[in-house]
């Protein structure tokens, strides 16, 4: 997501702005304090703005999780755990019962 420094006007992906700390709570909406790579100003990145594309990212992660086979390979298990963790955090904001059910189902299939 493109982000703009309020001080110097520098524009780039928000991940190019150095992460300093988190503010707020997951359910209410959080923001990150970040540092502009050009001028060093501290700027707030609102997670609410990122929600505009988060639904697309959730679909992509669900598809990726659906394609992961049951495996004893630690790398495959780690990847599945990372995706499950990301989807759980996203669903704390969205509260989609079907997504919660999907996460539980895939967890049982992959780890039990």
Describe this structure in words.
- It is elongated and about 50 Å long.
- It has helices spanning 47-67, 74-94, 97-111, and strands at 2-4, 11-13, 18-25, 29-35, 42-46.
- Strand 4 and strand 5 (42-46) form a beta hairpin.
- Helix 1 crosses helix 2 (74-94) and helix 2 packs antiparallel against helix 3 (97-111).
- The strands form two sheets. The protein has a three-stranded antiparallel β-sheet.
- It has two domains: 2-48, no CATH class; 54-111, no CATH class.
- The chain is α+β, with helices and mostly antiparallel strands and 112 residues long.
Principal-axis shape: elongated
User: What is the chain-wise order of helices and strands?
Assistant: EEEEEHHH
Number of strands: 5
Number of self-contained structural domains: 2
Spatial sequence of strands, sheet with the most strands: 3-4-5
Low-confidence stretches: none
Strand content: 15-25%
Class per helix and strand makeup: alpha+beta
Question: Average pLDDT, to the nearest integer?
Answer: 86
How many strands, what sense, and barrel or not for the largest sheet?
3 strands, antiparallel
> What's the alpha carbon Rg, rounded to whole Å?
17 Å
Number of helices: 3
- Give the helix proportion (percent range): 40-55%
Distance between the termini: 37 Å
Question: How would you describe this structure in keywords?
Answer:
single chain, three-stranded antiparallel beta sheet, 3 helices, 5 strands, elongated
